[in-house]
Specification:
single chain; two-stranded parallel sheet; 3 helices; 2 strands; 43% helix
């Protein structure tokens, strides 16, 4: 068993999932178009997860996915 790293209120989603292989994992993220949901979606995808993002409208979900692709 590995030692866990403590994360606090100021930890980012990238810091929390850093080094975790999420390849072949499927994640569902609500509120993917902004805020915590958007950052979570990016961090999970950056670590290999297949992310399904939900938002209130199809257009806002598409915009979030397009923003995600521009960041990579």
């Amino acid at each position: 068993m590995t030692n866990s790293i403590r994360h606090g209120a100021r930890s980012t989603a990238n810091q929390v999932v850093a080094g975790i292989d999420l390849y072949k994992k499927c994640m569902l993220v609500t509120g993917c178009n902004s805020g915590i949901g958007f950052e979570t979606m990016n961090a999970l995808a950056a670590n290999g997860a297949h992310v399904i993002g939900l938002s209130r409208s199809l257009s806002s979900a598409k915009n979030a996915c397009n923003d995600d692709h521009r960041r990579r």
